[in-house]
Amino acid sequence: MNLCLRNVFVSLWLFYTSLLSAQIGLSLPVLNNVNSGALVSMPVKVTNFDSITSMQFVIRWDPAVLQYFTTDQYNLSGLDGEDFGTLNALDSGILRFAWSPSNLSTGVTLPDGTAIFRVRLKALGPVNTGSTVVFGEAPPTDFEITQLENGNIVARTISQVNLTPGFVAIGYTVPAGEPAVDPAFFSLKVMPNPFYEKTQISFDLDSATDVQIAVTDATGRILLEKTMPQLSQGQHGMEIVSHELREKGMYYLILRTKTRLCVQPLFVF
Question: Which of 133, 159, 235, 260: disulfide with 166, CB 3.0–4.6 Å?
Answer without folding.
Answer: 133
